[in-house]
Every structure is written in C-alpha cells, then in structure tokens.
TrEMBL record:
InterPro entries: Na-dicarboxylate_symporter (IPR001991), Na:dicarbo_symporter_sf (IPR036458). This is Proton/sodium-glutamate symport protein. SUPFAM superfamilies: Proton glutamate symport protein. It is a multi-pass membrane protein. The chain crosses the membrane at residues 12-31, 46-71, 83-104, 157-174, 195-220, 226-252, 327-346, 358-379. It comes from Periweissella ghanensis. Keywords: Cell membrane, Membrane, Transmembrane, Transmembrane helix, Transport.
Length: 425
C-alpha cells in the first residue's frame, strides 16, 4: 500500500520550527560547550553563506528585467518616490511607537544595572566611529559604484540597485535588440530561484545551528535580568504588526493576517536566523505570486532591505529610552524629539553596516547623556531581540510591496485571492 507523498511531506515552515526547537534543546544541553558552539556556528554560517551566494544574482537579474519591462523613466521615478516616502513615514511611526511604549511602561527604572554582566562591544564601537564620520553626502556618493564587480563582491545593496536600474533602462532604450538580454537575465533569474529551493532544504539545520549557538552562549538564566525589556520589545513589535501594519493594510483592503499566513515560513526563518537576507529570494517570489508586477517587486524589496527597517526602528527607540531610564536620566519632550530626528537620520546612513541597529544606538545615545559603556549591559541579549526585529522588517517589506503595487495599479487581485486561498487549505 503506497502512502500519498503529499501527505507524508512536512512543510518547510514546520521543518524550520522543528530545527528551532532542536537547536534550543541542544543549546541548553551543551551550555558553554566550546566544541558544540564552534560546530553549530559553522553549520549556521554555512547556511547563511549559501543564501548570500544567491541573493545578489537574484536582485540583479530580477531588478534589471523588472526595470526594463517598466521602461518609462517617469513611471520609475514615481514608483521610487512613493517607495521612499512610504518607507520614511512607516519607519518614523515605528520610532514614535518605540518612544511611546518606553515612556508608558517606564521599564528602565525596574532594572538594576549593577546586576548585569557587560558584554564586549569593541567591534560595534569601532564600526560606529567609522560610520559616524560618513555624513549623508558620503552615503549618497557611495550609492554610485565605480566598479560594479567590486560592489557585487562586497555585497553592497544600494550600488547594485543603482547599477541595475540604469542597466534595465538602457536595455529598454535599445528596443528589440535588448530582448535577447532580457531573455537571458530572465532565464538566470529562474535558475537562481530553482537553486533557492534546493538551498532552503538546508534551512532547518542552519536554524538549529544558529539558535543553538545563541542559547549555548547566553544560557536561559541570563535572560532573567533583562527579561522585562525583551518582553516589552516583543509586545511592541506585535502591536506594530497587528495594529499599525494592520491598519495600513486595511486602507488598501488587504488583510494583514492573510499576509502573515502567506509569509509564515519567511517570518520563522527570519526570526530563527536573525537575518532578513535569507528571506529575500522567497519574498521576491511570493510577492509576485500574490499579484504584484515584477518591476515593482524587484525595486521595492531590495530597497526596503536598506530603508524600511521597522523592527530595527522600534528597538532603537525603545532601547535608547530604556537605557536613559536605567541611568535615571529624565528626558524632556524636546530631547526625545531630538532623539527621534537623530535616529531617523543615522538609521538610514548606517543601514548597510554589520550590526546596524546596535551601531545606530552607539552613535546616538550620547546625545541624551547615556554613556556608551552602558550599552554593553544590553549587548548580551541583542541577538535575542534581533530575532524579533528581523521578522518585523520582513513583514513590513512584504506588505510595502503589495501597497506600492496596488497604488501603481500593478496588482492582480485575482492572483492575490487565489494564492492566499492556497495557504488556507
């Protein structure tokens, strides 16, 4: 008697969840075990590297083909303007929400800093010093690549987007002769999505390794002193997704819970790995299946990975006020408005650096009188909060793509309904 293969197959989301649970269990069993930590870190890094291998080829091919299909510089400018404006408004709302929750809960006054163990933040300090000397002008100038192959090897997203946009426009401008290039890049894109499917089969092992390292290094007991901060951070992120993003989605007649259902595998993966990059290929694929045109998807999602970091914005505002409260620094409304402006600017300028959220905090807390050394006290749990804020970033970018697509009438409602229904069966 043969069993139905479809029945026997466990979905990727469940396999990732199983990997997450296994990783936590192994982390508890092998707490502070250097051999396990080294092995698990190797497994996790192997998975992240495989994803990194396919991200840029997908971005370049999808974006170039998408822009070539748009072909209209005026339309592209309109899409780009809408996208950046939307990202700026929503990320600012996220910052304001973080500030409000921090003030309402007043959680910093419940923490005894003397009981916390300081973590090593020297690598973040060095990065913050370098990044803080790069003003907005330097950031804008760095968008234009002098050598496209160099920026591809370095993985710098913004210069890659800039080149791909102009390359796509150039292909469109030469008309019929450019069709052979579009066909080639489309084929490469399809190949890379196929490779993505193979790579994702390793995701449960990568998740188990990465979460196992985190638990083995920190231990569950180390969460107690800052457990309140972690809990409030996750509650704020949940409010942002359900209330703020839910309201925005409702305006465009989109059900936020439908979006969360469709992207559940990507959200679990982003949460487990604390890396939004690992979800980019599938996010591009799914938003197209949800009915958004390739041109809009290819532009909005890669841009969002630099400019639309809602979860990071919540964390930065929440952590900055939390630390001020813990040091008994009473912030006036004027000081908090200044903090809001500084975070808005610095978070965009440092989005591409490693550990960007923590680096932004290092570069901004001094403006409200919090000693930089104080952030070493919450650095130990940064990875745990990073998991949540990464998932929020992914949810925000997925919804943003649908909204920009709808606003541009580059959205197929029938495809959306059909694809969502397939996830509810």
């Amino acid at each position: 008697m043969k069993m139905n293969k479809k029945v026997m197959r466990v979905s990727l989301g469940w396999r990732i969840l199983i990997g997450l649970v296994v990783g936590i269990i192994l982390g508890v069993i092998f707490y502070k075990n250097q051999g396990f930590t080294t092995f698990a870190q190797g497994v996790g890094t192997f998975f992240i590297n495989m994803i990194s291998m396919i991200v840029l080829p997908i971005v370049v091919t999808s974006l170039t083909v998408g822009i070539a299909n748009i072909g209209d510089l005026h339309k592209l400018g309109r899409v780009g303007g809408k996208t950046i404006l939307y990202f700026e408004i929503v990320s600012t709302v996220a910052l304001i929400l973080g500030l409000l929750v921090a003030n309402i809960t007043d959680i910093g006054h419940f923490v005894n800093l003397k009981g916390l163990e300081a973590a090593d933040i020297s690598k973040y300090v060095a990065t913050a010093k370098v990044a803080s000397h790069n003003g907005l002008g330097s950031i804008i100038m760095s968008i234009v690549p002098t050598n496209i192959f160099a920026v591809l090897s370095e993985g710098n997203m913004l210069p890659v987007i800039f080149f791909s946009v102009f390359f796509g426009l150039g292909i469109s401008a030469i008309g019929e002769r450019g069709k052979i290039v579009i066909d080639f890049l489309q084929a490469v894109s399809e190949v890379m999505f196929k490779v993505t499917g193979w790579v994702m089969n390793f995701a449960p092992f990568g998740v188990a390794g990465l979460i196992g390292v985190t638990v083995a290094q920190l231990g569950l007991a180390s969460l107690k002193p800052l457990g309140l901060f972690i809990g409030v951070a996750y509650l704020t992120m949940a409010i942002f997704i359900i209330v703020i993003l839910g309201a925005i989605a409702a305006v465009y007649k989109i059900n936020i819970f439908d979006i969360l259902t469709v992207f559940k595998d990507e959200l679990v993966l982003a949460f487990s790995t604390a890396s939004s990059e690992v979800t980019l290929p599938k996010l591009i694929e799914k938003t197209q299946k949800l009915g958004v045109s390739k041109g809009v998807v290819s532009f909005v999602i890669p841009t969002g990975y630099t400019f639309n970091l809602d979860g990071s914005a919540i964390y930065q505002a929440l952590a900055a006020v939390f630390m001020a409260q813990a040091y008994h620094i009473n912030l006036s409304i004027g000081q908090q408005l200044t903090l809001l402006v500084v975070l808005m600017v610095s978070s965009k300028g440092m989005a591409g650096v490693p550990g960007a959220s923590f680096v932004v905090l290092l570069a901004t807390v001094s403006t409200i009188g919090v000693p930089v050394s104080g952030l070493a006290l919450i650095a130990g749990i940064d990875r745990l909060v990073d998991m949540g804020r990464t998932a929020v970033n992914v949810a925000g970018n997925g919804l943003a793509t649908l909204i920009i697509g709808k606003s541009e009438k580059e959205f197929d409602h029938d495809k959306y309904v059909e694809y969502v229904a397939s996830y509810k069966k």
